[in-house]
Amino acid sequence: MKHYRFWLIGLLMVFITPLLMGCELGQVDQGRVVAYDRDKDTVTIIQDKRAEPGNPDYNTLPPHVYKMPTDRHEIGAWPKAGQRIKLDLNKKVITLFDHETQGFKDVPYTVIDQQDNVGRTSPLVRGKEFPIVDRDKKTITVYSGRQRVLLTFTVPDEYFALPDETWEAGDEVRVYYHKEGEAQRFMNITRTDIFKK
Questions:
Q1: pLDDT tens digit string along 26-50?
Q2: pLDDT attached to residue 176
Q3: Is residue 79 included in any domain, yes or no?
Q4: Which of 2, 31, 107, 170 to pair with 133, CA 20 to 30 A apart?
Q5: Please, which contacts does 189-195 make with residues 24 or more away whose CB atoms are closer than 8 Å?
Q6: Does residue 42 sit within a domain?
């Protein structure tokens, strides 16, 4: 009986070992979406270098571009892009991703109104689409679910010529890949977190 058991284990190892040796572990990239091209089926993200839940640091350049998975079952919610990378409430500065320069730009803002400790289910934000850009009043209203803040501010006049999505924080996503630039799995963390609440 012992010989049979050893023989069976040896046979399993003969078949399993080549499989294990042939399996290369993929890599994971996580970041904020700054562009999504439906025609080319590509997503562009700014990598979260820190990768600490609740405390991201989107500061990696150049941006990472991935072809979306060919298997649609490996894709979660489709990503929403935005150029707002960081909202610094202490310094009163918004960091934007500039598509033209492929770099970051810090824009100082003046607070008009700030509501703190605003959850995603608050009547102040529920059912509303942000950002709200009022070019007549020269105000922009954004909501950060992570920071739990609803902020209305103004910026120098030239910034009001920019499209509304400039002030939007793109979705946070996770990409699993083997080959550089080709996603095998795509998870939209932002949308998943929203659905959990």
A1: 899 999 999 999 999 999 999 998 7
A2: 95
A3: yes
A4: 31
A5: 189/30, 190/80, 191/76, 191/77, 192/76, 192/77, 193/145, 194/120, 194/145
A6: yes
- List the 149-154 sheet strands across, edge first: 110-116, 149-154, 139-144, 132-134
Residues 6+ apart with CB under 8 A from 146: 54
The answer to the question of residue 22 being in a domain is no
- Residue bearing the bigger pLDDT, 4 or 68: 68
Mean pLDDT of the chain: 86
Please state, in angstroms and rounded to a whole number, the distance separating the CA atoms of residues 163 and 22. 48
Task: Annotate 38-95 with DSSP letters as a single string.
Answer: TTTTEEEEEEBSS--TT---B--SSPEEEEPPSSGGGB-SPP----EEEEETTTTEEE
pLDDT digits (tens, 9 = 90+) for 73-126: 999 899 999 999 999 999 999 999 999 999 999 999 999 999 999 998 999 999
Structure token pair of residue 10: 């040896």
Specify the residue for token string 């550089």. 180
Instruction: Give the angle subtended at the CA of 27 by the CAs of 23 and 29, to the nearest 5°.
Output: 160
Query: Is 11 inside a domain boundary?
Result: no
Domain that holds residue 142: 27-196
